[in-house]
Amino acid sequence: MQQQQTYIITKAKPADASALVAIWEDSVRATHPFVAEEDVLFFKELIVGDKVFERMPVYVLRGADGEIAGFMAANDGMLDMLFLAPAHIGKGGGRMLMEYALKHLGVSRVDVNEQNADALAFYRHFGFEVTARSPVDGFGKPYPILHMALRA
Question: What pTM was estimated for this model as a whole?
Answer without folding.
Answer: 0.92
